[in-house]
Amino acid sequence: MELAYYSDFAVRLVNSEEPLREKDTLTSVESVRALFGPMQQLARRAGEADITRLKGVRTRLRAVFTAAAEGDEVRAVDLLNALLLEYPASPQISGHEYRDDDTGRPLWHLHLAEHPSNATAGYAAIACMGLTFQLTDLGVDRLGICEAGPCRNAYIDTSTNRSKRYCSDRCATRANVAAYRARKRRERELSGRTADGSQPSTASGDR
């Protein structure tokens, strides 16, 4: 599993809340466990206390994305470094896949071991290390917050031309439609003002 994959854990956690819509899906142990995806051994450790713990990590991760979206790279890095210190990752060499040849030798690659402490510590360590990998590889400016209000979902821009502004195609379409309607409305208003200004005025001597 590539380290870049783990950054999805950070995005998934941040997007479990929609602040402007006052929606929060992180409300039960089941919803906490659903965040872990295939890492079910770690997910099974989750309990009621992890709901509050993960919400705290979520707030701090959102601050990283927000700082990056606002162009404050130093703050984004400082915030992420603080999380890395609090939730250290445990890298581990894994070889559960094998070469397609006659040697039968394993394909060695790096995994992040499941944290021995608790579910939140494990999730946070994985999410922060994955986000760190993307940040240092792609750049801080690749972390963003969706511009299609009221959506404030986090995203990581992996496009070749650094053009991503929205978290999904759905939000991009919604924003484009709204922009088109606003442009047409301005054109109608401008056309109406132009028409009013071109009407001949009645001089007092013509009465």
UniProtKB/TrEMBL annotation:
<feature type="compositionally biased region" description="Polar residues">
    <location>
        <begin position="196"/>
        <end position="207"/>
    </location>
</feature>
<dbReference type="Pfam" id="PF11706">
    <property type="entry name" value="zf-CGNR"/>
</dbReference>
<feature type="region of interest" description="Disordered">
    <location>
        <begin position="182"/>
        <end position="207"/>
    </location>
</feature>
<dbReference type="InterPro" id="IPR010852">
    <property type="entry name" value="ABATE"/>
</dbReference>
<dbReference type="InterPro" id="IPR021005">
    <property type="entry name" value="Znf_CGNR"/>
</dbReference>
<dbReference type="Pfam" id="PF07336">
    <property type="entry name" value="ABATE"/>
</dbReference>
<protein>
    <submittedName>
        <fullName>CGNR zinc finger domain-containing protein</fullName>
    </submittedName>
</protein>
<dbReference type="InterPro" id="IPR023286">
    <property type="entry name" value="ABATE_dom_sf"/>
</dbReference>
<feature type="domain" description="Zinc finger CGNR">
    <location>
        <begin position="142"/>
        <end position="184"/>
    </location>
</feature>
